[in-house]
Amino acid sequence: MQGVEREAINPRGVPNTLQYGFSQAVMVKGGYRVHLSGQVGVDAHECLVGPDLEGQTFAALDNIESILGTLGGDLSHVVMLRIYIAEPARYDQEGVVQALRSRFPKSPPASSWVIVSGLSEPEWLIEIEAEAVLPELP
């Protein structure tokens, strides 16, 4: 990330969230911020990728990666995730952990996880908002 300094913060004395695929905080200097709308587990044709939380999580992250790619970025530029999990999937969160650990193996973004009664469509189990910091434009 030319022009951007990014540091994941995971101090002693607070829970070790790295095991769940996210950092306690991310400090960023330089670049420009991009706020992404919530992404769900659908493909480019708006078809649900499957009924399970893990698959929908990977698809939502794929969508985030695709959007960032059009801006010259990738998942390494993500500094914050807001994850909304529908009540029916409350106890399937291990799939979210696996997806995050897979996609953010080093210096993962900070995140908040919220259980909600439901999303816009009843079959949607997760929605992920992202904030990214991309390098300054030349």
UniProtKB/TrEMBL annotation:
Pfam families for this protein: Ribonuc_L-PSP
SUPFAM superfamilies assigned: YjgF-like
GO terms for MF: deaminase activity
Transmembrane segments: none
InterPro entries recorded: RutC-like_sf, YjgF/YER057c/UK114
GO CC annotation terms, alphabetical: cytosol
Domain of life according to the entry: Bacteria
UniProt family annotation: Belongs to the RutC family.
Record-given protein name: RidA family protein
